[in-house]
From TrEMBL:
<dbReference type="InterPro" id="IPR036388">
    <property type="entry name" value="WH-like_DNA-bd_sf"/>
</dbReference>
<protein>
    <submittedName>
        <fullName>DNA-binding transcriptional LysR family regulator</fullName>
    </submittedName>
</protein>
<feature type="domain" description="HTH lysR-type">
    <location>
        <begin position="6"/>
        <end position="57"/>
    </location>
</feature>
<dbReference type="Pfam" id="PF03466">
    <property type="entry name" value="LysR_substrate"/>
</dbReference>
<dbReference type="InterPro" id="IPR036390">
    <property type="entry name" value="WH_DNA-bd_sf"/>
</dbReference>
<dbReference type="InterPro" id="IPR050950">
    <property type="entry name" value="HTH-type_LysR_regulators"/>
</dbReference>
<keyword id="KW-0805">Transcription regulation</keyword>
<dbReference type="InterPro" id="IPR005119">
    <property type="entry name" value="LysR_subst-bd"/>
</dbReference>
<dbReference type="GO" id="GO:0005829">
    <property type="term" value="C:cytosol"/>
</dbReference>
<dbReference type="Pfam" id="PF00126">
    <property type="entry name" value="HTH_1"/>
</dbReference>
<dbReference type="GO" id="GO:0003677">
    <property type="term" value="F:DNA binding"/>
</dbReference>
<dbReference type="InterPro" id="IPR000847">
    <property type="entry name" value="LysR_HTH_N"/>
</dbReference>
<dbReference type="GO" id="GO:0003700">
    <property type="term" value="F:DNA-binding transcription factor activity"/>
</dbReference>
<keyword id="KW-0804">Transcription</keyword>
<keyword id="KW-0238">DNA-binding</keyword>
<comment type="similarity">
    <text>Belongs to the LysR transcriptional regulatory family.</text>
</comment>
Amino acid sequence: MFSGKEYVYEVYKEKSFSKAANNLYISQPSLSSTIKRIETRIGMPIFDRSITPVGLTECGLKYIQAAESIMAIEQDFRNYLDDARNLQTGTLTIGGSNLFTSYVIPPLISSLHQKYPGINVTIIEDNTSNLESQLLLGSLDFIVDNSTLCETKFDTFLYREEHLMIAVPKKYPINQNLQEYQVSLEQIRSDACQDPKVPVVPLMEFKDYPFIMLKPNNDTMQRGTHLCKANGFKPDILFELDQQSTAYHIACSGMGICFVSDTLLCKSPALTDMIYYKLDEEKSKRNICFFSKKNRYITFAMSEFLKLIS
């Protein structure tokens, strides 16, 4: 019923068929024919052609009021699309474990918010298995993890490389025999400890001490047990926990040794009760990546977020 309303509205604004036709870049007969078809379609005249300048009939007034309402709604929607395309609005939902939601995601979304304050960001904290399921269901845009996820199901976007270190309570006597292998937090935070000249600690030296580990499905646990096995012993595990940060803080209380990423050590407050050692680079090196569901539509918000991590 309101198809062609822009022609009617132009005549209404100009109060002249000739001026309206000129504005619309069409001939006056063509415009008159179009208006006549619209009036025939609704069954009543819109314009009173018996007066000069041309005016509206009662039906025409109602038509214009309705047309203005429709055009206002259309303009609102165009504004929304413009905002969304210009990233003035939008949504982004990111999932990760406690480590990543605490230390990796915040500075990234802070940068995104400074540039695009209209984007609404939601952070979901959970374990990798649950997050992976949510990503496949479409309830998450991204998850961040240091595991390797199925390439046929997920697209992978590299964020940065990280390394596992081993953290040992300072009170353990074995530290006195291993001073040549010790690295400082400053070396870890500057990545200087990954220089090939920095020696790798012989893990066998820790075989008689308790370990604070993560649960079996965790990549840190799998790498840690593999490193111990490669060095000829099975670790005496005191606790198996869900979160790396929890394991690290329990180790800092003096209860055991733990494997900890340089991501955590670079971001968390410096603690003086621990001694750190470098591990075999090839076995301790892994990537932190963001993952999205394969072949899903990449929204404007997702696209801009990916620019921040590249």
